[in-house]
Amino acid sequence: MKVFKFGGASVKDAAAVRNMTAILKMFSAEDLVVVISAMGKTTNALEKVTNAYFSDITEAPKNLDVVKNYHLELMEELFPDKSHQVYNLVNNLFVEIEWVLEEPPSRSYAFVYDQIVSTGELISTTIISNFLNASGVSNTWLDARDCIQTDNNYREGNVDWELTQGLTRSKVDALFKKNKIVITQGFIGGTSENFTTTLGREGSDYSAAIFAYCMNADGVFIWKDVPGVLNADPKFYKEAQKLERMSYHDAIELAYYGASVIHPKTIKPLENKNIALHVKSFVNPDLPGTVIGKDFQTKPLIPSFIFKENQVLISIAAKDFSFIAEDNLSGIFGLFARLGVKINLMQNSAISFSVCIDNDALKTPELIKELMNDYKVRYNENLQLFTVRHYYPSTIDMLTAGKEILLEQRSRQTAQFVVRTINN
Asked: φ and ψ at 202, to 5 degrees?
């Protein structure tokens, strides 16, 4: 069996859903678990609903109406018969969000976020499963929360692998006896108390890897709007090239440093069972794409670039100018872990410790505030982080032209630069 994953762009409108249907028909002889994200930018839109719920509760229903209208228009194109069951099924999912919005917040932001934002995947898979059945692609809908079990770490659920593997094997094997295609959700899991968790932003790739690991899949196929894994985001680097194949090691490095094509947690479960990862184009499904696997040599071996915007560089020093030693670092790292802040780059000197992080509107102010209790803190905002894997000196010169380098770090294979644009 194989695991397919379709992201939001591949199911963003009725035409995209029909295109996905055509791709699945190409693999009608295969046993497939198909992991699907929320449609288009639905996750962003539901985040807006959640944020409004905590900041201005009267705005939250208006924001939800935008999400409802988007899906209604899409359904009307796919299901002209308004009596089709899909309308009631999707409406019931929106009603569950409306119930949350009726009362002021009484639980943490992270908990409420997961209960609201996760609905996007439930809606998309409900619509697509029904459309596939209506189009002659028989399938069974599976609630991923019945398989992927996590702890209560909302927004970054940690998978209980033993329990998840047992549940997934039993449920998916049973469904394969009914249909060769199982449709399920990316990004979401469930807790022992039957609450919903999410696996981290853009976590549908990770969901696909979890299902593949549990089912000992022959391969994972991620369908994207690009021909495969590129050595850079074309939005930032016009001469981006496709990589034909990659090693797990290079893929993990690129994902860790922020390459958007693969979720950082995706590779490890696949590597553990030597399951190949294929990144293919849903626009041109016949093209070979990129394959990632064990013992592969990355080909072609050219520099790969990762660009991260909206970065903050924080410099932490002792108030009495004493050394930043191991006991200080232990406390600092503990604070980052407690607040769930990922460090993209760090550097230590005798009297200061510098970190580059994503500027999260919720986490960053709290982090800086708590650091200031014990340390002298300086920070710069609106920065960029450039990461180059397999770099040459000329590529670094090209990247940093017209930029002020605030922090840099190099190893034999990877170079990183925190920069800001020089205003002439």
From this structure: 60, 35
Report CA 296 to chain centroid distance, whole Å: 25
Hey, what's the torsion of the CAs at 93, 212, 266, 222, to 10 degrees? Answer: -70
pLDDT tens for residues 171-199? 999 999 999 999 999 999 999 999 999 99
Domain 2-224 has CATH 3.30.450.40: no
Residue 256 contacts residue 250 (beta carbons within 8 Å): no
The whole-angstrom separation of Cα 126 and Cα 327 is 51
Please compute, for residue 127, the number of CA atoms within 13 A of its CA located in the half-sphere on the CB side: 33
Q: Which residues contact 163 (CB under 8 A, 6 or more apart)?
A: 149
Residue 219, CB-side half-sphere exposure with 13 Å CA sphere: 14
Question: Residue 190: which of 142, 225, 223, 234 has the closest Cα?
Answer: 142
The sign of the dihedral angle between the CA atoms of 177, 178, 181, 182 is: negative
Cis peptide upstream of residue 300 (ω within 30 degrees of 0): yes
Q: What is the pTM of this model?
A: 0.85
Distance in angstroms (rounded) separating the CA atoms of residues 148 and 230: 30
Using one digit for the tens of pLDDT, what is the confidence trace for 104-118? 999 999 999 999 999
Query: How far is 159 from 300, CA to CA, in rounded Å?
Result: 35
8 Å CB contact between 186 and 5:
yes
| Phi, psi at 55, each rounded to 5° | -110, -40
Domain boundaries, given as residue ranges, for the chain: 2-224, 304-421
Tokens of 321: 């100018």
Measured CA to CA, the distance from residue 19 to residue 34 in angstroms comes to 14
**Residue range 304-421 in CATH 3.40.309.10:** no
